[in-house]
Amino acid sequence: MAETDILISPHGAQLGSLPFLPDCSQVLEMFPKGYWIPAFYGSLAQAGGSGYQYLYLGEEEKGTMQEDTKSTAATLDGRIRARKQKLCAPLKAVVIAVDEMVQKWHSCCDHIV
């Protein structure tokens, strides 16, 4: 982790090591439909000095992500089902996010040097 500049990961416990990323690193966290909680690891990334973005793999309409998550999180079975989904992010969305992250990384590094 100490030499990772850009990290792309599904939501999960593996993101608990975000504080060990170097300054200016960037994180892209992917969420399955019905399971959107960016404040959980997003705040950890930002507190450690990393940039943070998320990619929600459901419909990103205002209120939809919260409502999907609320109904999914209501039961243990719903949470398990959401976490077991295979994540297949649209390539174009990932490329756009990574491009933005690279630009932010360069900008941050320019200020350090």
Structural account:
By secondary structure, the protein is α/β, with parallel strands linked by helices. The protein has helices at 38-47, 64-73, 76-83, 91-112, and strands at residues 6-10, 26-31, 51-56. The chain has a three-stranded parallel sheet, with helices on both faces. It starts with 5 loop residues before the first strand and ends with a helix.
Radius of gyration from the alpha-carbon trace, in angstroms: 15 Å
What share of residues are in beta strands? Answer: 15-25%
- Main sheet strand line-up: 1-2-3
- Please give the largest β-sheet: 3 strands, parallel
Question: Strand tally, please?
Answer: 3
Distance between the termini: 21 Å
Notable traits:
113 residues; alpha/beta; 4 helices; 3 strands; 44% helix
Fold blueprint:
Blueprint: E1 6-10, E2 26-31, H1 38-47, E3 51-56, H2 64-73, H3 76-83, H4 91-112
Parallel strand pairs: 1-2, 2-3
What is shown here, in short?
The chain has 113 residues and is an alpha/beta fold. The protein has helices at 38-47, 64-73, 76-83, 91-112, and strands at 6-10, 26-31, 51-56.
